[in-house]
Specification:
heterodimer, A: two-stranded antiparallel ribbon, B: alpha/beta, six-stranded mixed sheet
Chain lengths: 91, 417
């Protein structure tokens, strides 16, 4: 349970948001060329980091926009928030 | 050889005020080298070591645990045991475990308080009714006991349920597995630890794994807080922390770790003599032998290793509990906690070899691993000892995420994951 600073609406309770998992997983440009191993990597394999992780969130009970969060999963502390399409911040 | 627990040993020890009981397991320092090392001293890890020693004669093995044994999810679950899964592969896996549970107290000479009080799953909408009927048929085809109950039969089996049809999610029916039930979770870890220790397994507590040493694709050993341990075979059974260990070996797993919450009430006199689970409203409840209501809630949707979880998850579960059991409206909750569960995309576990020779993973049990503890240990021990899976866990290999041959129990099992 924590507060998320939505880049569009400001600080709101985490219960207003929906987590969208690991960020910056790039959809393959040539899906027809992909091997089964590469599909598995894209669809299923996750870093699932204990520590600082880049992830996507949606303000589902607010502005309904997607954005990115950098969060420490070992204590739920949010490092920074940035919009979709922006480069991930260097930490 | 350990002294056998019996009425006579209880009587004998009563004379010395129960102060001279033999230690159930030793507290050794790690040796330099083992034939195999199990990482994670929860129920599954200890069971794996027990069956490695017992059935595969691997006695020079160790279990390393970063905290104390049974201090993770083994001591944090709602102790429900059942095998009413939809798919053949899952039915085989979980019923194998249930059959071992039935004789486990005798086998371990340790009372794990296995109680076959039945598990009832409720249907709250028409799709639930169809799904539960389908699952009942699937279970029976697999030789697993299951009956479908009407609303009246649900009320008869558990009279405190509110079966009024004017509540938000009325009870339209349910299923019952009578062989299902609960067991004492701590006793399971302690019983397996005692059994494994007796056969010479070293159970090393307060020993955290810091790295996995390998040369090319061969395992060389483990870096731990108690020094380097040389071994050719490593079995990882670290539940929510499976990805952390996998990352040490340069592997990625299809897992996400999330907090799953449970809570218990103050102890009261016996009021509910079965386990009732409700998929649609996500609430399940049973009563412990101490008298506490044991209530299970759902997982949060975000990755976290905090062992906390969000308040609204508990609130949602308690709303459902109160509507289904109005008699609990003035109960006070004593404790709430979260455990970190590792969830696979298909909500089925992984009991498998990996691309690295000598490295094995038993993970992905998600929200329901406790019930499988004995079966999981037995099959994982088989996989480690033979470097090949047993036919019951062949479907639960890690390659299913490449081949697409998933065991999709998301919603297909008796409860949402």
């Amino acid at each position: 349970m924590f507060i998320i600073n939505c880049p569009f609406c400001g600080k709101r309770d985490q219960s207003e948001f929906k987590a969208g998992g690991e960020a910056h997983i790039i959809r393959p440009k040539q899906p027809t060329e992909l091997s089964d191993d590469e599909w598995a990597e894209y669809l299923f394999m996750r870093k699932n980091i204990k520590g600082v992780q880049f992830e996507r969130w949606n303000h589902v009970h607010g502005c309904r926009k997607w954005f990115n969060i950098v969060r420490d999963t070992s204590n739920d502390e949010i490092k920074t928030v940035y919009k979709m399409g922006e480069d991930p911040p260097k930490l | 050889m350990k002294n056998k627990y019996s009425i006579f040993s209880l009587f004998k020890n009563a004379f010395s005020y129960h102060e001279n009981w033999e230690k159930a397991w030793k507290d050794p320092e790690p040796k330099n080298e083992y034939d195999a090392v199990i990482v994670g001293g929860g129920g599954h890890g200890l069971a794996t070591a027990y069956y490695l020693a017992k059935k595969h004669n691997m006695k020079n093995i160790a279990v390393v645990e970063k905290g104390w044994i049974g201090g993770g999810n083994t001591g944090r679950n709602t102790t429900i045991i059942r095998s009413n899964y939809l798919w053949d592969a899952s039915a085989g896996l979980y019923d194998h475990a249930l059959k071992i549970w039935e004789g486990l107290s005798q086998e371990l000479n340790y009372n794990i308080m296995f109680s076959q009080r039945g598990v009832m799953n409720l249907a709250h909408n028409l799709q639930d009714v169809r799904d539960l009927k389908r699952r009942t048929h699937a279970n029976r085809l697999n030789g697993i006991d299951a009956v479908y109950l009407s609303t009246e039969e649900v009320k008869k089996f558990c009279p405190i349920i509110n079966t009024s049809q004017d509540i938000r999610y009325p009870v339209l029916g349910g299923t019952l597995q009578r062989r299902a039930g609960t067991a004492r979770h701590d006793a399971v870890a302690w019983g397996y630890a005692r059994g494994a220790d007796e056969m010479g397994v070293d159970i090393i507590q307060n020993c955290e794994v810091k790295g996995i040493k390998r040369i090319n694709d061969n395992i060389e050993g483990l870096e731990t807080t108690k020094g380097f341990i040389k071994t050719k075979k490593i079995g990882v059974v670290t539940a929510g922390h499976s990805s952390v260990i996998a990352n040490m070996a340069g592997l990625k797993l299809p897992l996400e770790s999330k907090p799953l919450q449970a809570l218990v009430s103050e102890p009261v006199k016996p009021i509910i003599d079965t386990v009732v689970m409700s998929n649609a409203v996500h609430a399940y409840v049973s009563q412990s032998d101490k008298g506490e209501l044991v209530i299970g809630a759902g997982t949060d949707d975000y990755i976290s290793y905090t062992q906390k979880g969000s308040h609204e998850i508990v609130e949602g579960t308690l709303k459902a509990i109160l509507e289904l059991y109005p008699i609990f409206s003035r109960m006070r909750m004593l404790r709430q906690w979260g455990g970190i569960v590792d969830i696979c995309p298909d909500a089925s576990p992984i009991i498998s070899k990996t691309s690295i020779k000598g490295l094995y993973f038993n993970c992905g049990w998600g929200t329901g691993g406790f019930k499988a503890t004995p079966g999981s240990g037995d099959l994982f021990a088989h996989t480690i000892a033979n470097d090949e899976p047993h036919k019951l866990n062949a479907a639960f290999n890690i390659n299913r995420f490449v081949s697409g041959d998933l065991v999709d129990e998301h919603g297909a099992a008796a409860v949402a994951h």
